[in-house]
Amino acid sequence: MTVTERRGEVDRRIREACARCGRSPEEIGIIAVTKYVSAAAALEALRCGLPNLGENRWQDAEAKWRAIAEQTEAWPEPERPIWHFIGSLQTNKVKEVVGRFACIHSLDRLSLAQAIDRKAGQLGIKVPCFIQVNVSGEHSKHGLAPEELIDFARTVAPLPNVEIAGLMTMAPYEAEPEETRPVFRGLRLLRDELNQRAVLPSEAKGLSMGMSNDFEIAVEEGATWLRLGTILVGKEEAAQ
User: From 162's CA, which of 65, 101, 107, 206 has a CA 20 to 30 Å away?
Assistant: First the structure.
């Protein structure tokens, strides 16, 4: 299948999930996760009207980022890529990521928030960040424990160049996607509690949750950003 065909199928499933829970598909953004595909495949996603691209590691993404930047430099602004950093971010890579990636979905410690704030201040920008919460409690997953969220948000709230856009989580891979529902519902409830307590300068509306295996459940539970890789752009043996 082409990216266009895959996108059509994904859009259909999102519409059906929205119909089941009374939401509008316009409330939901799609991040095409390109970590397993080449720059050519990422460009195909851009040409299909998927401007939001997601990568996990700067070391792996750098060549692709530079190739796509060169090829899209003359494109109209609305068609150019908007990069999302969706993997665990090492503090020493902040200088490479901030300014190149429009949004960071994996804020999970104060030292990282401070590093992002410093680099963003140098560039004169404000960086939207999602606080990553390990709702499932899996040892293999990054993120804050749910009970740490409020205090952490209160600590990072004063940083002038970091904007908390919402919360992010990763659900366990389940053969039956319905089993992921408690994780996504848990993140939504944490987001609502965070806003009710008003510890941030502005409301954190975003929920970055849902991947290829479980995105329909995430939509039903309030996702505003889906991170879709294989189901949308496929997977190549060797991405260049």
Answer: 65
The count of other CB atoms within 10 Å of the CB of residue 23 is 18
Query: Which residue, among 228, 227, 209, 229, has the nearest Cα to 219 in the 3D structure?
Result: 209
Boundaries of every domain in the chain: 3-233
DSSP annotation of 86? -
Q: What stretches of 53-109 show up as alpha helix (H) in DSSP?
A: 58-72, 94-97
Phi/psi of residue 153, nearest 5 degrees? -60, -40
Does the pTM surpass 0.85? The reply is: yes
Q: What are phi and psi of 228, to 5 degrees?
A: -115, 120
Q: State in words which class domain 3-233 has.
A: alpha beta
Query: pLDDT tens digits, residue range 144-169?
Result: 999 999 999 999 999 999 999 999 99
* Angle between helical axes of 3-21 and 39-47 (0-180°, round to 10): 60
- Average pLDDT (132-139) is 93
Distance CA 211, CA 19 (A): 19
Kindly give, in sequence order, each residue whose CB lies less than 8 Å from that of residue 152, ignoring residues fewer than 6 positions away: 110, 131, 144
**What letter would DSSP give residue 76?**
-
